[in-house]
Amino acid sequence: MNAPKIALFCNVPEKAVISLKDVDSIYKIPALLKSQGLDDYICKRFSLDCPVANLSEWEQVIYEEANPEGEVTIGMVGKYVELPDAYKSVIEALKHGGFKSRVAVNIKLIDSQDVETRGVEILKGLDAILVPGGFGERGVEGKIMAARYARENKIPYLGICLGMQVAMIEFARNVANMEDANSTEFAPDCKYPVIALITEWRDENGNLEVRTENSDLGGTMRLGAQPCHLSGDSLVRTLYGKNTITERHRHRYEVNNLLLKTYRRCGFTYCRSFS
């Protein structure tokens, strides 16, 4: 890069010309910018009184990414795998977990419709399965098949939003003998509505809110942070290290609590509840 020439023709100081080259990891970019004095230039340009930048945490992330001590392959079974950026936040979260655990995370994107047509053979060789959220009926049966494969083969499974819901449906069908189990999102008249529309809840003022299938879509969602109480002897309680947590929600359908007793009789562990 010819910084003096760029500075001349752009009418800016040479120190204001910063090269942002391609790197093999986005986590190297802050150090790359700092090495060219970008932080100092901005602070001086806007008369900001800032301490010297400490990139030790960034450097640790870069080191952990470059020096894994193991390797895992996680299959992500979804319906938007042709557009992997649809799962960008989930993919990055898996990578971050890998950094902290000092393992390289290989993510295999699997179309849930391929599971339906080709069978669960395409899931072999995975160390874990993740089914992320999604909308609509397309590919749902493939996600249910993936959940069953994980359960029967004792493969760690993480279901997020719809991914959790299909795991509930799978358990109901194949363990609790609820053959017609489904979500009312896909089968409104199913015999066992394991997942159903949220019809009522209390708002922040304690007032009862009521919704129906005909209500405005946004009005039928549980939105924002919700307190969640964890069972004391559960794995998730151990992971969080506290009895009550707060997590954000954005969904219209939830587990049908009326069927939880049947689940428990079949060995299902339900380790969280909401206020």
TrEMBL record:
UniProt xrefs under CDD domains: GATase1_CTP_Synthase
User: Would you indicate the residue range of the signal peptide?
Assistant: none
The GO terms this record gives for MF are:
ATP binding; CTP synthase activity; identical protein binding
Q: Specify the Glutamine amidotransferase domain's residue ranges.
A: 83-259
GO BP: 'de novo' CTP biosynthetic process; pyrimidine nucleobase biosynthetic process
Annotated pathway:
Pyrimidine metabolism; CTP biosynthesis via de novo pathway; CTP from UDP: step 2/2
| SUPFAM superfamilies registered for this protein in UniProt | Class I glutamine amidotransferase-like (SSF52317), P-loop containing nucleoside triphosphate hydrolases (SSF52540)
| Keywords from the named record | ATP-binding, Glutamine amidotransferase, Ligase, Nucleotide-binding, Pyrimidine biosynthesis
Q: Which Gene3D superfamilies match?
A: 3.40.50.880, P-loop containing nucleotide triphosphate hydrolases (3.40.50.300)
Please identify the protein, giving its name as recorded.
Answer: CTP synthase (glutamine hydrolyzing)
Q: Which residues form the CTP synthase N-terminal domain?
A: 4-48
Its family remark reads: Belongs to the CTP synthase family.
UniProt EC number: 6.3.4.2
An example Pfam family from this entry, by short name, is GATase
What this protein catalyses is:
UTP + L-glutamine + ATP + H2O = CTP + L-glutamate + ADP + phosphate + 2 H(+)
Give a Gene Ontology cellular component term annotated to this protein. cytosol
